[in-house]
Specification:
Helix content: 40-55%
Shape: rod-shaped
Mean pLDDT: 77
Strand content: 15-25%
Number of helices: 10
Distance between the termini: 147 Å
Number of strands: 16
């Protein structure tokens, strides 16, 4: 039997079938099929249509997730670092707690009693103490930083000015004679210098000789209580007149004693000795350190200070013959000799000195003001006179204290 069908046989077979009579139109048939399909439930193998909103929703969710990952680190980086620190600290605390628990369990097994835990008050106190220690450490670091900054600022600044004393000549006209005195006034250098440079500046600024012979100084050195003046050659002072030689003697006495020297030595190109005017060759000149007290000259333009030894004031104790002590010197400075009409006491009339004490290496002078209208210039001259008067003594510091206001003026005497 041939199972293969061709179109002719199929057509022939269909034509033999009885006719189908159906009066429904195509539209009616389509509507009937659609209504039936709605009523029947789909089988589990029937394909479901994919919902069109799933893919856009997934894309939006992915974008939001990316924003959550990227944006917070930009705005909260510090918080994350802080959280990391807190986490690390918490881990350390947990480790310590775990170790304590293990130790307690071990102690319980070995029969060792557990220590009493601190109460809340002691824990709070410990926390407060730790806070105080941290605050103190921060303050020390701040002060240290502040001091380091101050030191660096000082090293960057220009050198600080230095005060020196220079001498000038004060002329006193009497009825039948004219007297000249070497008096002192304070001067200021532009920068801080050592004692050798200070002495050199003082001598050169105080030189009133006709040839300005102190300009021939090439070097100054200090050897204990002796100052060595080195000149360019041995004839540098050969042209001194007798009056100029006396002036230099007084100049050395007034200035060099302030720096603590009791002798001046001369050298020429490093060799001892120099031709000192009419005195011939001279190697040393003594400088007296027995001066006691300073007195005030009220000049036309400025105040000057003259030493007690130059003014002819008392510098020795009448009974013992020894130089006056510092306490006796200050007491003597309150008054002047009867024939002193061209200088006055450096202690203003408005100032009353109440006590003079020397505790250790410090001289302490206390005073009160009887009149508040005393000028600042007179007070400054009073302070300078006390400072210069204390210089010959073996003192480190001079303190001048106003007992009414506790205001203190302090001088280093080294």
């Amino acid at each position: 039997m041939n199972n293969k069908w061709d179109e002719k046989e199929i057509e022939k077979t269909l034509s033999k079938l009885p006719p189908v009579k159906d009066h429904q139109s195509k539209d009616d048939l389509f509507q009937a099929i659609e209504n039936k399909s709605k009523k029947e439930l789909p089988s589990r193998y029937s394909p479901r249509k994919k919902r069109p909103w799933i893919f856009p929703s997934l894309a939006a969710a992915a974008a939001v997730f990316l924003l959550l990952l990227i944006v917070p680190p930009l705005f909260d980086n510090g918080d994350q670092q802080f959280s990391s620190d807190e986490a690390a600290e918490q881990n350390m605390m947990n480790t310590a707690l775990y170790n304590d628990n293990e130790e307690n369990e071990q102690n319980e097994e070995e029969g060792i009693p557990e220590e009493n835990p601190p109460d809340e008050e002691s824990a709070s106190n410990n926390s407060f103490d730790e806070s105080e220690e941290e605050t103190g450490e921060e303050a020390e670091e701040h002060n240290s930083s502040f001091e380091e900054n101050n030191e660096s600022d000082t090293s960057l600044d220009a050198e600080q000015p230095a005060s020196i004393y220079v001498a000038t000549i004060y002329t006193v006209e009497n009825e039948d004679s004219v007297s000249e005195y070497v008096v002192l006034e304070e001067s200021v250098l532009n920068s801080e210098v050592g004692i050798e440079e200070s002495v050199k500046h003082s001598l050169q600024e105080s030189d009133f000789t006709s040839g300005q012979y102190m300009d021939n100084l090439t070097d100054i050195s200090a050897e204990n209580d002796t100052v060595v003046l080195n000149f360019a050659d041995e004839s540098s002072l050969e042209s001194l007149t007798s009056s100029e030689s006396q002036f230099l003697n007084d100049l050395f006495q007034e200035l060099l004693a302030l720096y603590g020297f009791n002798q001046v030595s001369f050298e020429a190109e490093g060799e001892p000795g120099i031709i000192y005017g009419q005195h011939g060759e001279v190697e040393t000149i003594p400088v007296s350190s027995h001066n006691r007290g300073y007195y005030l000259i009220d000049g036309e333009e400025d105040f000057y200070l003259i030493s007690g030894i130059a003014a002819g004031e008392q510098i020795e104790d009448n009974e013992s013959g020894n130089p006056l002590t510092f306490e006796q010197t200050v007491e003597k400075m309150k008054t002047t000799s009867e024939d002193a009409d061209w200088y006055d006491s450096a202690i203003p009339q408005e100032v009353e000195i109440t006590s003079v004490r020397i505790p250790g290496d410090t001289a302490r002078v206390s005073y009160i003001l009887e009149d508040e209208e005393v000028s600042d210039e007179k007070l400054d001259a009073f302070f300078e006179a006390l400072k210069l008067s204390a210089a010959p003594f073996t003192l480190d510091t001079l303190e001048i204290i106003n007992e009414e206001t506790d205001e203190k003026v302090e001088f280093e005497l080294d």
